[in-house]
Amino acid sequence: xxxxxxxxxxxxxxxxxxxxxxxxxxxxxxxxxxxxxxxxxxxxxxxxxxxxxxxxxxxxxxxxxxxxxxxxxxxxxxxxxxxxxxxxxxxxxxxxxxxxxxxxxxxxxxxxxxxxxxxxxxxxxxxxxxxxxxxxxxxxxxxxxxxxxxxxxxxxxxxxxxxxxxxxxxxxxxxxxxxxxxxxxxxxxxxxxxxxxxxxxxxxxxxxxxxxxxxxxxxxxxxxxxxxxxxxxxxxxxxxxxxxxxxxxxxxxxxxxxxxxxxxxxxxxxxxxxxxxxxxxxxxxxxxxxxxxxxxxxxxxxxxxxxxxxxxxxxxxxxxxxxxxxxxxxxxxxxxxxxxxxxxxxxxxxxxxxxxxxxxxxxxxxxxxxxx
Length: 372
Hints:
By secondary structure, the protein is an alpha+beta fold. It has two domains: 9-199, no CATH class; 208-371, no CATH class. 33% of the residues lie in helices and 27% in strands. The chain contains 13 helices and 17 strands. The chain has an eight-stranded mixed beta sheet. The chain has a seven-stranded antiparallel beta sheet with strand order 11-12-13-14-17-16-15. It has a two-stranded antiparallel ribbon with strand order 1-2. The protein is elongated, with a radius of gyration of 24 Å. The two termini are 38 Å apart.
């Protein structure tokens, strides 16, 4: 396609009219407006001009601009490219995988089988018009993909709105198409790292029963203090028996036993008076729950806490630049000398900080993991 213009996705096709599109935008919730405003300001910065798409401009985006937009949320997705593009049109995409349309559809099926849902942004093109949708699930019995279409009015994959003969059908508040229809128009799909790992057959889940056999659980002699269930999730509260009034470990799991969220809360006064033990606990917590594919990065954070056992290192940290590394940011946030630190990796989000409020409760230092 060396002589053809690059396909665009989004913008304002002639069906429905631009006026319909603008009326729908006016009804967007406030958070959408705030997000669009922030992205527009970022896209307008001199160093970003022409690189990032401006959502408020009404102009369509390239595949590369769509991928770059997703990176603004802290993740680098895998772009499974089924369409044809020049190399220069994808030069900024660091995770580009060229796949056939059939392979992209099979990847979506694999995610559904592993996760019981999909949640993948997909760009489709009918030869004239391009658009982005979110594929939410796959029904194996009907071999139909359910998707959310942000377009105001009938989906652009409805029969009257596309040139590829796709006949999307309403599915509650969403739409659905057959696998064959989606294969006909798929141009690219953007998979988060855990989704791509599922497609590859990688097992990265941490199960509660497996974690209970860990060195961390045994060494600190954790005892369950409470348990509560909310829908398909259960949260257990644990603590070492000797310090159950000074700390709490929350472990949230799905019904399958997969750990999806953990939090360690420590009484700040206890930390000061038991710094060596507290640092051992913190280091072990980080290593115990760090997602295996991201292990190297979290090992550096754990090591930053371990080094604080040396009084000389502790003095040096106080004068160090908090932004020197992820580990340094987390240490400073945990000590209360800088704002909360958030580390986003492919398979999890790690947070460190100290909380205090006006309720009269003592300050609590905390570490949290949200796992994919």
